[in-house]
Design brief:
Elements: E1 3-9, H1 14-24, E2 36-44, H2 49-61, E3 66-75, E4 82-89, H3 91-101, E5 117-122, H4 126-135, E6 140-145, E7 147-153, E8 159-166
Antiparallel strand pairs: 1-2, 1-7, 3-4, 3-6, 4-5, 7-8
Length: about 170
């Protein structure tokens, strides 16, 4: 049973910058997880690829491109040892996209309330998490989200995008 994820890929140059920071903080996931904003978390699936593709094509067709602004850092501590770059614009668009993606072939109830973010440090000691939080507190990036991706978790532990879905609804 493959494990998939659905996410917005952070574009360059910001993806590379955040990936380098994540590695510098000592996060071993920096080398296996592309810089992204999760829509559907890692999910084992039984549905055939054609059903997943049809569902995600439908989701993409019903959502328009939107502006996403990343700004500053935040954390899920003490609930979870995560430091992330926060979303300051585009939150509701991410929420609607994630909610739609978690229906149909990917129907699920999230373990935690959905909160769009870009992880930069995870499962590190408190000092490393504090350092990540302070280092990126002034980080800022803004870009147009025009697509999202289906990722597959490989046997080697690497997450790879396997399909791109273009947001194609017209804004009114």
């Amino acid at each position: 049973m493959p494990t998939i994820g659905v996410a917005i890929a952070i574009p360059e140059p910001w993806a590379g910058v955040l990936q380098q920071y994540r590695a510098s903080f000592g996060d071993p996931a920096a080398d296996v997880i592309p810089t992204h904003l999760t829509l559907v978390p890692p999910t084992p699936v039984l549905a055939p690829q054609s059903e997943l593709d049809a569902h995600l094509c439908d989701v993409a067709s019903r959502h328009a491109p939107f502006r996403l602004r990343l700004r500053g850092t935040a954390t899920f501590r003490p609930v979870s040892p995560v430091v992330f770059v926060a979303v300051s614009e585009g939150i509701s668009s991410c929420e609607l996209l994630a909610e739609a993606a978690r229906r149909g072939a990917l129907e699920q109830e999230p373990a935690f309330p959905y909160h769009p973010h870009v992880t930069v440090a995870h499962h590190l000691d408190e000092a490393a998490l504090d350092y990540a939080y302070a280092t990126l507190r002034d980080f800022e990036a803004s870009f147009e989200v025009t697509e999202f991706h289906l990722y597959i978790h490989g046997d080697d532990g690497v997450w790879r995008p396997v399909r791109t879905f273009e947001l194609s609804a017209q804004t009114g």
